[in-house]
Write a structure and sequence with these properties.
Distance between the termini: 17 Å
Structural class: alpha+beta
Number of helices: 3
Largest sheet: 6 strands, antiparallel
Shape: elongated
């Protein structure tokens, strides 16, 4: 399941160079990930009630172009790879002119909050990935 999350660049996002601070892209990514989870039917409360969560174990980001104050951004989140206990989500940020400005690959591991160990990816997440991708 691919999702699109929209953001308008605010003044608080801008650094002394007049463009979006690199850390803000990470915040944009996290907001879009929360949106993807909700649309996948995976609520934060459900995870906590079941003593499970996801942990980012790898975060790869490429800054391709700058974003500036007032830009309208779209963060597209796409399931990329599904493993037994881990999964990768790809994210791409585009501006209002459809220029590709940032790309992310984030690897997550399902995590048991009590045992503090990895567990198999839950079905609600696993079913968001294309079948027979390997």
């Amino acid at each position: 399941m691919e999702t699109t999350f929209e953001i308008v660049v605010n003044e608080k996002d801008i650094d002394h160079l007049g463009h979006v601070n690199y850390l803000e892209y990470i915040h944009y990514s996290e907001s879009a990930i929360r949106d993807w989870y909700i649309k996948a039917g995976v609520s934060h409360n459900d995870l906590i009630e079941n003593n499970i969560g996801t942990v980012v174990i790898k975060f790869d980001i490429s800054y391709l172009r700058e974003a500036r104050l007032g830009d309208f951004l779209k963060v597209v989140t796409t399931p990329l790879r599904l493993g037994t206990k881990s999964f990768v989500l790809k994210q791409d940020i585009y501006n209002q002119d459809n220029v590709h400005i940032t790309e992310f690959n984030k690897t997550f591991v399902m995590f048991d909050l009590l045992s503090r160990k990895s567990i198999p990816v839950i079905d609600k997440i696993a079913r968001q990935f294309p079948k027979n991708e390997e």
